[in-house]
Input
Amino acid sequence: MDIIINNKHILLAVSGGIAAYKSAELVRLLRKQGATVRVVMTHSALQFVGMLTFQALSGNPVHTELLDVDEENAMEHITLARWADVLIIAPATANTMAKCSHGLADNLVSTLYLAATCPVFMAPAMNQAMWNKPVTQENIQRLIGHGVTMIGPEPGEQACGETGMGRMSEPAEICRLLLAESTSQCLKGLSVLISAGPTREPLDPVRYLTNRSSGKMGYALAKAALKAGAKVTLVSGPVSLTPPEQADVFKIETAEQMYEVVITKAVEHDIYIGAAAVADYRPVFLETHKIKKSLEQTTLTLQKNHDILADVAMLSSNRPFTVGFAAETHDLERYAQDKLIKKNLDMIAANWVGQDSSNALHNESLGGFDSDQNALQVFWNEGQKSLAMTDKNNLAEQLIGLIAERMELKSK
Output
């Protein structure tokens, strides 16, 4: 670990799970890197690891009570929340995440989450069945939409003897990501325009043409750009995601609507990232009534939509640094390089979608549409870089850092 941060205030909240033993090692590693650590614990967490362990490792008293009469004004949650540069909940149990996602505040940890104005991280840890429960995944997406950064979990053998997703990430990885939060804001003072999600092209009052894009990558990029200090405008197609609270959001349905907003706003921004899966074509005729099932076959006449990405890249004045996305089922590098040149882009991020039997790594279950994970191959003139399979939030932060790096080099 090569990041040393002196006097960084890390507030560690420990909830009740067997992975609480890992949090003790996390305290040791954070202090080794020069951070000042304070620990709060739920009553359930005390059943797994004793208070004295964290007190000895952190060098500070451990806090467990929401209302402490010995604390000035008995407002410990406010005092601790204002002290912290970063709040990390590790382990974050399913119960604690459910409370935080719904704004409940019945103990010190959940109340601290509501009171915190600093960046918040959670390191989930639970049984694989609990992790895979739809309500748990809904709570996680709600927290991500509120600006929380998830670290892990990881797959593997669990304390209960079962195997699957739900192991808390290792303390060294959590420590690395927390301290990386202190690095300089690489997009501070810049403005970023991001398009995300699919478009819907109506056929009749009840039907439309669309694609499988979930919008997760674009929303993760918006969050990462905000974290990097940028002012963010998000133009979103129809998705079931909560946008970052600090972003200026425009919600659209069709490719034409997205085109109008993006072209108008592009000249006001320093960077444009076209992460949306925009429909290439739309129906020529929009039926005013529902199309009836009367023929064995029917024909749809389609017309081409504007190429939003290419049109932004061809702006003659106030052109932003333009980054495209390419979702490919085969010949990824060739198609991505071709789009980079033909559309006059500064950078393109390409990923595999669908299934390609010629290479098992391209199986859609590993990333792409509908997935929380992805991998990217990023190209620019005379250069490229591979970003390995990871959570889309982590991947977005890596891509934002690479964009900032390329912009700086281009300006020299």
Summary: Confidence is low (pLDDT under 50) at residues 1-6, 355-366. Residues 213 and 369 are 5 Å apart (CA to CA). The longest helix spans residues 392-411.
